[in-house]
Amino acid sequence: MQNLGKTLSQLKEQSRYRSLKLPHGIDLTSNDYLGMAQHTALRETAIRALRDGIDIGAAGSRLLRGHTTAHAELEEFASAHFNAGRALYFPTGFQANYALLTTLPERRDIVLYDELIHASMRDGLNAGKYKSYRFTHNDLNNLEDLLERYRNSADNIYIAAETLYSMDGDFAPLEDIHALAQRYDATLIADEAHATGIYGDQGKGLAYEIIAKHGYDNLITVHTCGKAIGVAGGLICANSEVVDYLINKARPFIYSTAPIPLQALLVQKSLEILASDDGKNRRDKLLLLSKRAKELFNGEGSQIVPIILGEDAKAVEIAKAMQDQGYDIRAIRPPTVPQGTARLRLSLSSNLDEDILQNFADALEQMS
Ligand SMILES: Cc1ncc(COP(=O)(O)O)c(C=O)c1O
Fold it and tell me: Alpha-carbon distance 80 to 30, whole Å?
């Protein structure tokens, strides 16, 4: 165990040491983009369900006794909501992505992935028994070259991408990627983690228009439920056969205790709220703030605004100074982001207002 201390010391020297900090100050860092994590109706739903005697734990894998009415109803609701053949609910988005990428592609298949996809998909790729190749971030030419090169040698090709990138706040050229998937008979796995709840009709995600036109033949979507939905978990939406296959083959699904029933119940309630006027008002407010942040910080126009500072030590120093002024913003460093691009990740929420953004921008400017 002696190397652990050495590695930790090195991390400290490199300004890459991480420690747990409780929330403190104005939230500019969480993924609770629409304030759903504090929604009164969700609290009331939880209290009522507990009073009515909902079991606390699922007490087993979904394939054993852990499958409850709350899970079944959420999946039925989600498949209709996201216009999918079927939906499957996992305890976390990480588990959902990992399950997809360790289960669907087999030895003679290939996965092409955007270089900036999330660690949960990366770890799935690394654990898989197939070959995978990365394409330059959002580069359609590079992706098409790889599709050309591998189409004939691979049995199946999967493309892994996010629809809105978690650390850069930029959007994928989703329609074009999907069109390439169709042209080369590939399947796009679209991680909607940061788009669900915010973009698309009733917050159904950035792939929603594509689904309305083309269904799920060349597409699988992942909707994490701990960000704009404000609860926890991950929903995989796909055609029925894919979901059936996952239920039979995905080890993270089969060999893990089901999410607590209350979690499933709250995700469904949150999706219902997000589809209502309340959800629309929250979305509209967030979109306005995102527009303002684009002007102030030269962002991409989404609710995620990277403020790139370069060196790790600088990001840590500025994050600390902003925290001291009452803003809860954290330094994001490698390996979460590429070397030399350490940053503050400004994360907007419909709970904020323009004055807070302006004050934050002024404080930041004084520091540089
Ligand atoms: C793009 C992306 N995908 C997947 C996940 C994992 O989701 P969860 O936090 O629900 O495990 C995250 C979370 O950080 C993410 O940013």
Answer: 29
